[in-house]
Specification:
9% strand, 2 helices, elongated
Length: 80
């Protein structure tokens, strides 16, 4: 197996894992009331931060990083 094929396989694997990381939180129909806790914001204001927003943001960043790494591995594999 050549290095090009190995890099393509790694890239495709990372893209698949990223897709799973991004979709799994949306498949869970059960929501927790503890996730609705407001961490910051002004009382009566329109802007606030909840625990669920922080969790979603972290999950989205991980998925984006995995997708980017997957595409980078594939591009490197093509140009080798």
């Amino acid at each position: 197996m050549s290095s090009t094929q190995i890099l393509d396989i790694i890239g495709l694997s990372l893209n698949t894992i990223a897709a799973i990381v991004l979709i799994v939180p949306n498949l869970n129909p059960i929501k927790r009331l503890s996730d609705d806790l407001v961490l910051s914001g002004k009382p009566g204001g329109d802007e606030y931060t909840q625990i669920k927003h922080l969790k979603e943001s972290c999950t989205n960043k991980i998925g984006l990083i995995l997708l980017a790494l997957g595409f980078i591995f594939q591009l490197v594999g093509i140009f080798l």
